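To whoever is on call:

I kicked off a structure prediction for a single chain this morning and the downstream step that reads the tokens threw a length-mismatch warning. I double-checked the sequence; it's 165 residues and nothing unusual in it as far as I can see. Pasting both halves so you can look.
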Amino acid sequence: MTHLREIILKLADAKIDFVIGGGVACVLHGVERFTLDLDVSVNLIAENLEQFIAVMNELGLKPRVPVPPESLLDADFRQMIVDEKNALVFTFLDLDDPRKHVDMFLTDDLSYEVMAGSCREIGLDGRVVKIAGISKLLELKESIDPPRDKDQIDIKTLKSLLSDG
């Protein structure tokens, strides 16, 4: 998880307001699984989003699609790619090392406001980061149709964590 830790710490050090979701959030809650990408909900306030884009540039992460990352500052553009392209995320990746991969959630159900409403703060190398809550992760995993094998395992483990919690 070295490259993931590097990305998370850079975002935290830049004081970006974000919530970690997906597989990394599952791992940080104690689910034993392998993941290469980082899924995040970013507070879309212009200053915060500009700083997020700056960190992506600093890390050498470029948009997967051929559009300037600054396009994300336009709410109409974000809505257009959700509506017309059925995009759930906007992907940044390192073209020389594709395992360095960040998906920024775009849809309302995965918005920062929704994810932050049930998040948990944890310490990571002296920084405080927000991760999606177990209940929210479980809800999201159960909504995947059809679920992948790893989603089925995550669901079982997240349910166990909830009952133990």
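Update from on-call: the warning came from a stale cache, not from the record. Cleared it. Sanity check on the structure: The first strand starts at residue 18 and ends at 21.
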